[in-house]
Amino acid sequence: LTGTKTALQKMHSDHRMTTHTEYLDNSDLQSTALELEWDMETELEDLGFDHFQPDNSFHQHFGNSENTDFSLRSFEASVSPKGRFQRLQDDPDYFLHCSRPTPKKNNLSFCQICKIVWSAIFLFIIGLLIGYFARTDYHTYLPVNETTSGPPVVPHDTHSDRDILQGIKEEEIKKTFRTFSQLYSSKNDTDLAKELMVLWSSLGLTEVQMLNYSVLLDLPGSSPNTITETKSGQCFYPSGLRCGREAKDQPNQDLLYSYAAYSAKGSLEAEVIDVKYGTVDDLKKVQSTANVTNKIALMKLGFLPLIYKLSLLEEAGFGGVLLYVDPCDLPKTSDAESKSFLVAVNSGGDPTTPGYSSIDGIYRQNQLNLTSLLVQPISVTLVRSLFSLPNNESRHECLHLEVSSTVKIEMKVLTVPVYKSISNIVGYLKGSTFPDRYVIVGSHHKTLNTYSGQDWASSTAIITAFLQALLLKVKKGWRPDRTIVFCSWGGTAFGNIGSYEWAEGFKRVLQRNAVAYVGLHNPVRGNSVVHPIASPSLQQLAIETLNFRCIKALKCQGSNVSSVQMQGDVDYFINHLGIPSVQFVYEDDMASEKPSFLSEAIFPVDTLETENLDPSFVLHKTIAKLTGEVVVKIANEPVLPFNALDVGLEVQTNLQGDSLANNHMLEMAKCLRDSAQLFQSDEMRPANNPKERDPIRVRMLNDVLQHLEKNFLVKEAPLGFYRNILYRLDEKTAHFSILLEAQERWKLEQSNETHQAASSKVLNSIHSAQVYFKAGFDVFETALDPKN
């Protein structure tokens, strides 16, 4: 009784301290239920029911995956070994300051006892009335633009996640995939977006809208780009086909869309010089033996971001670039060597409105070309033809192309910049408890006629299947605690334009309210193994989800979660907003052995090839369930399933063995890890115990977790490198990418200024995170002090 009285006094004090009063009423009404649920959970654990969780009217708990019967695989220890819910050190004084001495016993008369009994009955009746009217007015806390009442909200049960995920069916994914694949040839971007909006609305998503933006796109002209060998006069299309001919399996549409968007336009006749992968070492070797001014570079994709390598070529003095993918790096599709591809040299968004959304009446800059280089992607077949190279006849191993001779060519780039309308589809499933906190799920749809490929149809089918399963639960009265935002982006192939324009327009809101971004960019690229990519704070959630969901038949064993740069529309949310992100992708088993950034090349992928990778669509269903479980957990758990300690561990890992990491930087990294460990141990107790889930405490705790990774956003980064320095370039390199780039840049400039600038950025980020934790501790101590 005294404990309850103390808690009520504390709640009353906190009520005066905060403006978020709307959440206090709901949590007060649930306090008794939470205590009973925690006792029930303890009894179930004593009986061995590890997968049973307490039934909660607001919050959802998920089963502990460590006791499943599935065949699990082991992960590398890139996350904290003790886990999110493990208390790292005991705090015996934690409850002392909240307790009060037991009142002395007094002898009570019969009249006094009667007064107490009648008072208790009266208070009980008043409590019932308050509970009834509080439940009736529950939806008044939703935003004022709520126009539909929707189904009644019912208490959330422990099987909600299971019911939702069981509703994801292969048949529905296959149906949606084939429907949109057939619509591809007959619909333009806007029409296809309308079809998707109508489909989502028909499933029951009441708040869905289509947003249109007029943006600058770099489109092919009436004729394909060409490459002509000067000596023989032979003219070739980028695919290697001779000019004037069209193959039955390569229509004119594919020939037109084999180009580099936003490249310089015109023609250039010059000698071709092989620069291999275009790294700093490759360029230094070439420059020591040849004059590269106004020459054409022959460069392979991979290892570094394309726009970064192009900037190095510009600085060196090259005039043009022929891009290709080495035969050993090509995707496993039919006749890959004879296919050219599409790339974009756009760092993101509409080039004419950098930093702000392309709305009507906005000022537009003159940015027709984003590079001074003429850039043209070509096939391996054309490389062999130009340099008279033999075919790879080895059946046992792949042989990398080695170009030793030089040829003189004329390349013509005939693309045309045009303003076009692109469309985004955005739908909202409002949260019942925290409607102002957004969990964003993003896929993309086809933009114009960028190839006859259907790779986008996989992500569209998966997000639609998850939405359909979710809305079936909503029709029964269920609602997530936090708002889930479903997005399908347009303009992805041209530099993630749709997601950039939307996020730039809502930047201030997203900075404050966005909790996480879960991506579905090209989710089925192979059929060998699941590759999870996650922010450091979400790595443990990705591991737990894989451990719980994956069995040997689903080919999840051997997967290793990592924080590496991702391709696709997640870019803005990581790079400019610092939002924790995660995505799951099926890849080939040798994908990790290949160079990074190969996915910058967009190859034409036929529908049949996608279905050959996954004929039963079981891989699509697996990605849908993994994605769905992560989304539901983030949207429903009372304490966000983010791991602060893993951020500290990631920083320490990235500094180990780095020559630019001085003792001061290493010491600060250690202090950051200690602060994160203390925060995880002392402040995250509400994640373990419902009795400690004071609404104010939980809200403050979630705010700290939500904004933690923003401390690692640097103001500027090299072209193509993430501003969020927590993400590495690839899985093989465990160092901060900006420190690695500084070391490479030093080879060209021989200046320590680049080293010092990069080191200062890393040091400032670590210091900012350390101060952030300290401020969080101070807020908790002040707000939760009984004296206040």
Low-confidence stretches: 1-79, 81-106, 134-156
**CATH domain class name of the domain at 160-218 and 421-636:** Alpha Beta
Strand content: 5-15%
> What integer is the average pLDDT?
80
Distance between the termini: 22 Å
* General shape: globular
CATH superfamily of the domain at 160-218 and 421-636: Zn peptidases
Tally of helical segments = 22
Strand neighbour order, sheet with most strands? 1-11-13-12-14-16-15
Radius of gyration: 29 Å
What summary fits the major beta sheet? 7 strands, mixed
Write the layout of secondary structure elements.
Elements: H1 2-17, H2 21-46, H3 110-136, H4 160-166, H5 170-184, H6 189-203, E1 207-219, E2 226-229, E3 235-236, H7 252-256, E4 260-261, E5 266-274, H8 280-287, E6 296-300, H9 306-316, E7 320-324, E8 343-344, E9 374-377, H10 380-387, E10 408-413, E11 416-429, E12 434-444, H11 455-474, E13 482-489, H12 497-505, H13 507-513, E14 514-519, E15 529-534, H14 539-549, H15 571-575, E16 581-587, H16 607-613, H17 618-636, H18 644-655, H19 663-682, H20 695-707, H21 737-749, H22 753-783
Parallel strand pairs: 4-8, 5-6, 6-7, 7-9, 12-13, 12-14, 14-16
Antiparallel strand pairs: 1-11, 2-3, 2-10, 5-10, 11-13, 15-16
Helix pairs in contact: 4-11, 4-17, 5-11, 11-17, 14-17, 18-19, 19-22, 20-22, 21-22
